[in-house]
Amino acid sequence: MENLNQFTDSLVQLRKELHKHPEVSGKEIQTAKRVISFLENHPPDELITGIGTTGVVAIYKGEKAGKTVLFRCELDALPIEESNNFEHRSLINGVSHKCGHDGHMAILCGLAAALHQNKPESGTVILLFQPAEEDGCGAQKVLSDPKFTSIQPDYVFALHNLPGFPIHQIVVKNETFTCAVNSIIIQLKGKTAHAGEPEKGINPALAIATIINQFNANIQVDSTKENYCLITPIYTKIGKKAYGVSAGSGEIHFTVRSDSNLQMRKTEVTLENLAKSIAKEYQLKCKTRWTQGFEANENDETAVATIKKAAKINNFEVFEKEKPFTWGEDFGLFTQHYPGAMFGLGSGIHTPALHNPDYDFPDEIIATGVAIFHQISKQITNAH
C-alpha cells in the first residue's frame, strides 16, 4: 500500500474537509460528491450513486466466489451550531458534525483505498455511505430502493465512535447494542371556552397531566428487567397565550426507549391505548402518531466473535459491555434483515460527548477503524 503516513494524512484531510461542509439528513448532496471524488481515486468494481436519495455504494469484488460483507457509515450532520474555533470548523451556520459521521466516512474511504490496493481474494466487499441516519429514515430509504435489491450481504457491520471510552478500544456486546427508540406525538382536541366559564369548554390540561403521570408509571429504569423502558417527555403545548380563553386543544410528545424490538412493539401499543383511554375519560378527541423510529441493533453472535477476533489480530483492547447503549441508531434496521453487528470504537475518556457543540472526531482513530474493518472483511470473504 502507498506510504502509510501519506495514506493517513489524505484521510485526515478528507475528514476535515467533510467537517467543514456538513449537511443535514436527506440533504447530503455535496457530502456524497466529496465521497465519490475520493472513491474515483481508488476505483471500485462498481459504484452506485443516489441510493436512498443521496447514498453511495462502492463494491470491491474478489476473483473467486465467496461471501459478501457490507460495511456502513453515515453521511449526515446535525442541526447544531459548532462552538469550536479550529481551522476546520463548520462553515455552515447551525449545522455541524457532532456525531462523528465525518470520521466514520473517512474510515470507510480508508477501507476503500485498502481494498483497491489489495483486492479481496474471494467474495465481495460492499461499502455503504448511508444518508439520513440522524432522523431515523435513511436505512429504510436505502433498503427499499430498487438499486439495493441486487445487494444481498451475508454479513453487515458498522462502528460508532464512543467518547468516554479509552482511545482505540473496541467495544462489543452480544444481542442488543443500541436501544430501540421511537417518539410519540399525542394530539388532543376539546373545546375552547371563556376562561371565566371553563365548564362550558373541554380543556386538555388535566388529560395531559394524567398522561404524564400514567406514562411515568410505565418507566422501568432497571435494564436487567424484561420490561426495561425509558419514557422521556420532550415537548408540550396547550391553547394560546390568550388569557381570557380556556384552552381547547393541546399536544404532548415523548421519546420511548426499549432494549428490544419486541418489547418496543408491546410498549407502543400500551402507550397508545393509555393515551386514547385517558382522552376518552376527559371527553377529548385523540390522535397519536410515531416519528423518528430506530430499531434496536440486535447483534449476531458470530458477527461479534468476528469483531473480537479482528481486534485481537490487530492487538486492539476489547471491552465487552454488559448493558446496551440507550441511544438509537438506524443500523438496527440492517441487523433486522441480515446477520451482523455494530460495535464501538473508543474516542477518548475526556472527549466531549456526542451531539455536544464542542465535540470533534479524533483523527488518530481513523487508522484503527480502517484496520479493524479491513481485517473483518478478510475473515468473512476468505471463510471457505
What's the layout of helices and strands?
Elements: H1 4-20, H2 29-39, E1 46-51, E2 55-61, E3 64-74, H3 101-117, E4 122-130, H4 138-143, E5 155-162, E6 170-172, E7 175-178, E8 180-189, E9 193-194, H5 205-217, E10 229-238, E11 245-246, E12 249-258, H6 261-281, E13 285-294, E14 297-299, H7 301-313, E15 318-320, H8 332-337, E16 340-346, H9 366-381
Parallel strand pairs: 3-4, 3-5, 5-16, 6-15
Antiparallel strand pairs: 1-2, 2-4, 6-16, 7-14, 8-12, 8-13, 9-11, 10-12
Helix pairs in contact: 1-3, 3-9, 5-6, 7-9
Description:
- The protein has 384 residues and is an alpha/beta fold.
- The protein is 31% helix and 27% strand.
- It contains 9 helices and 16 strands.
- The protein has helices at residues 4-20, 29-39, 101-117, 138-143, 205-217, 261-281, 301-313, 332-337, 366-381; strands spanning 46-51, 55-61, 64-74, 122-130, 155-162, 170-172, 175-178, 180-189, 193-194, 229-238, 245-246, 249-258, 285-294, 297-299, 318-320, 340-346.
- The strands form 4 sheets. It has an 8-stranded mixed β-sheet with strand order 1-2-4-3-5-16-6-15. Strands 10-12-8-13 form a 4-stranded antiparallel β-sheet, covered by helices on one side. The chain has a two-stranded antiparallel ribbon with strand order 7-14.
- Strand 3, helix 3 (101-117) and strand 4 form a beta-alpha-beta unit.
- Helix 1 runs antiparallel to helix 3 and helix 5 packs antiparallel against helix 6.
- The longest helix has 21 residues, at 261-281.
- The model has no long low-confidence stretch (mean pLDDT 96).
